[in-house]
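Sequence only, no structure available. Ideas?
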Amino acid sequence: AFTTDQVKALTTDDFAAIGTGGLRGLSSVQVGVLTTEQVVALTTAQSASLNSAQVTGLSSEQMAILATDDLKSINTGALRALNSEQLGSLTSDQLAQLTTAQVNALTSTQIQSLSTEDLNAL
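Reply:
I predicted one. Tokens follow.
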């Protein structure tokens, strides 16, 4: 298992090499220390492999830089686990790219936390 310092030290090539299996082995705390470069380097398959606990470990800053394809690949259960701050950090462009299943999975609390602009993007 990696320490958080080891996770932060992984290059984007190293990170790509660990694939989905290695990513699934990271805790929410370890996912929370991913650098901007590592988050940007996530593949769609890696994003899709994130479980609810890992997704809730992502900071608002990390959520805001997820590529739209990566965001669209996150399963509905994991998306439903986002807190209001994480959901609020998504751009209107990111929200507009959510799938119908993802939008339908949002809780009433999550929907209520969105701005009018964000709601219009859905």
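The radius of gyration is 14 Å.
Hope that gets you unstuck.
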